[in-house]
């Protein structure tokens, strides 16, 4: 009886909570409930950490070069489009880069922001293929905790952002991440074309710097909310989560930078040159 009452209360609280969701995202795939995406992410974690490596244990690695060329250039094109849409739906057309609250209206501009937020969220599921390719190519050393954690937490947390706050200053890090992905996946795409293109990848050494700049920008932008007077952003908890995320990855990459460049040590295999092994965007 006690368990039944507890379950009933939990369901009631969930129903009450979900009533506050943005009605404009009704009908978008995966947005009805957080449970379908949770199942997908759990299956992804199980495959890349357990099932996949066991399946490949006594098999030769797959040759996926052509598929990876298409995939990487596809992500580049998608990231360019996401960047453009983030800019056109607010960041280049009226946002102040300070206290930008969510526009919950049904105006064309507000709905455009909703669409790009959902598409960015969905792109995180496409990027799960990064790890699947690692496993199928038997690059298990690249399936690090940092890599899997990052690829898992991004879509899961962005569901809540899209469901309740599709717009405003909480979307800044999505736009910056899309810009960084244009650069990163261009590198991956050229690299996957083969050794003849490696001479064009002289800028590999700057990838860590680009990632550091990303996390610094995100952390400082979100941090503004604690210094602005009377900023009526609708979901301050999202700002805390984004700020914490940016700060954690900023510390991780500063740690890498210190050991790789300041102390002159060989970069750790898991994040050599800040890319490749983790793809921690």
UniProtKB/TrEMBL annotation:
Motif (Di-lysine motif): 277-281
Pathway membership: Lipid metabolism; fatty acid biosynthesis
EC number: 2.3.1.199
Keyword DNA repair: no
Keywords (A to Z) from UniProt: Endoplasmic reticulum, Fatty acid biosynthesis, Fatty acid metabolism, Lipid biosynthesis, Lipid metabolism, Membrane, Transferase, Transmembrane, Transmembrane helix
Transmembrane segments: 27-48, 69-87, 118-136, 143-160, 172-190, 210-227, 233-258
Reactions performed catalytically: a very-long-chain acyl-CoA + malonyl-CoA + H(+) = a very-long-chain 3-oxoacyl-CoA + CO2 + CoA
Superkingdom: Eukaryota
Location of this chain's protein in the cell: Endoplasmic reticulum membrane; Membrane
Main enzyme class: transferase
Signal peptide: none
InterPro entries: ELO_CS (IPR030457), ELO_fam (IPR002076), ELOVL7 (IPR033670)
Alphabetical list of Pfam families matching this protein: ELO (PF01151)
Presence of keyword Phosphoprotein: no
Membrane topology: Multi-pass membrane protein
UniProt free text on domains: The C-terminal di-lysine motif may confer endoplasmic reticulum localization.
Similarity comment text for this entry: Belongs to the ELO family. ELOVL7 subfamily.
Described function: Catalyzes the first and rate-limiting reaction of the four reactions that constitute the long-chain fatty acids elongation cycle. This endoplasmic reticulum-bound enzymatic process allows the addition of 2 carbons to the chain of long- and very long-chain fatty acids (VLCFAs) per cycle. Condensing enzyme with higher activity toward C18 acyl-CoAs, especially C18:3(n-3) acyl-CoAs and C18:3(n-6)-CoAs. Also active toward C20:4-, C18:0-, C18:1-, C18:2- and C16:0-CoAs, and weakly toward C20:0-CoA. Little or no activity toward C22:0-, C24:0-, or C26:0-CoAs.
Protein name listed in UniProt: Elongation of very long chain fatty acids protein 7
């Amino acid at each position: 009886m006690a368990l039944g009452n507890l379950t009933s209360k939990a369901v009631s609280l969930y129903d009450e909570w979900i009533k506050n969701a943005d009605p404009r995202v009704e009908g978008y795939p995966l947005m009805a409930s957080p449970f379908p995406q949770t199942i997908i992410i759990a299956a992804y974690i199980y495959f890349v950490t357990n099932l996949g490596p066991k399946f490949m244990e006594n098999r030769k690695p797959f040759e996926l070069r052509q598929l990876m060329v298409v995939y990487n250039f596809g992500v580049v094109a998608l990231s360019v489009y996401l960047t453009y849409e983030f800019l056109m739906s607010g960041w280049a057309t009226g946002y102040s880069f300070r206290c930008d609250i969510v526009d919950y209206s049904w105006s064309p501009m507000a709905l455009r922001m909703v669409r790009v937020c959902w598409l960015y969220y969905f792109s995180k599921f496409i990027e799960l293929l990064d790890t699947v390719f690692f496993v199928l190519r038997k690059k298990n050393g690249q399936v690090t905790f940092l890599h899997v954690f990052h690829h898992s937490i991004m879509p899961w947390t962005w569901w809540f952002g899209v469901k309740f706050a599709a717009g405003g200053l909480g979307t800044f890090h999505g736009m910056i991440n899309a810009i960084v992905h244009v650069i990163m996946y261009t590198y991956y795409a050229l690299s996957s074309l083969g050794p003849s293109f490696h001479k064009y990848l002289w800028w590999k050494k700057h990838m860590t710097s680009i990632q550091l700049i990303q996390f610094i920008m995100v952390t400082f932008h979100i941090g503004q909310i604690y210094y602005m007077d009377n900023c009526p952003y609708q979901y301050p908890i999202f700002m805390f989560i984004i700020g914490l995320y940016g700060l954690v990855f900023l510390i991780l990459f500063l740690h890498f930078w210190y050991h790789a460049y300041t102390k002159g040590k060989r970069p750790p295999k898991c994040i050599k040159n800040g890319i490749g092994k983790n793809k921690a965007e």
